[in-house]
């Protein structure tokens, strides 16, 4: 994720991103959001929803794995459920551009991309 988008997430959700900038020995959030910008809106909305149900929740790691978004979170059951719902929705959104048109999860390194972004690879 680009620096500007990541900075907006940290600014708007300081509790969720409380480990941003931590040592990699202490937190996987030291690596930032390890996914592309197409999922930014999905992550932003998930952060809003999670903060609303659990103001003390915080993210342990945000990344792409097997073509889907992973939000590892320390929080209550409602926060966990919202993180899982965002992960499921990620398979319908292009990780590169955010399109919801003609999105598939495939490839030798599984990625969730629209047809346009897949052709660019």
| Cα shape | globular
Number of helices: 4
> How many separate structural domains?
1
Instruction: Note the main sheet.
Output: 3 strands, mixed
Overall pLDDT level? 96
Q: Whole-number radius of gyration?
A: 14 Å
Task: List the defining traits of the structure above.
4 helices; three-stranded mixed sheet; two-stranded antiparallel sheet; alpha+beta; globular; 121 residues
What does this entry look like structurally?
The structure is a single chain. The chain is of the alpha+beta class and 121 residues long. It has one domain (3-93). It has four helices and five strands. It has helices at residues 3-12, 40-53, 77-89, 115-120; strands at 33-34, 58-65, 68-74, 103-106, 111-114. The strands form two sheets. It has a three-stranded mixed sheet. It has a two-stranded antiparallel sheet with strand order 4-5. A hairpin with a 4-residue loop joins strand 4 (103-106) and strand 5. The radius of gyration is 14 Å and the shape is globular. The mean pLDDT is 96.
Topology:
Blueprint: H1 3-12, E1 33-34, H2 40-53, E2 58-65, E3 68-74, H3 77-89, E4 103-106, E5 111-114, H4 115-120
Parallel strand pairs: 1-2
Antiparallel strand pairs: 2-3, 4-5
Helix pairs in contact: 2-3
Brief description of this entry?
This protein is an alpha+beta fold. The protein is 36% helix and 21% strand.
């Amino acid at each position: 994720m680009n620096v500007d988008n990541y900075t907006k997430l940290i600014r708007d959700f300081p509790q969720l991103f409380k480990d941003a900038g931590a040592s990699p020995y202490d937190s996987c959030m030291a690596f930032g959001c390890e996914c592309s910008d197409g999922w930014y809106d999905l992550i932003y909305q998930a952060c809003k929803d999670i903060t609303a149900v659990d103001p003390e929740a915080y993210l342990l790691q945000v990344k792409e794995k097997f073509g889907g978004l992973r939000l590892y979170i320390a929080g209550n059951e409602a926060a966990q459920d919202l993180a899982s719902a965002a992960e499921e929705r990620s398979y319908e959104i292009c990780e590169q551009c955010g399109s919801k048109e003609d999105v598939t999860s495939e490839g030798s390194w599984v990625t969730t991309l629209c047809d346009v972004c897949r052709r660019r690879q």
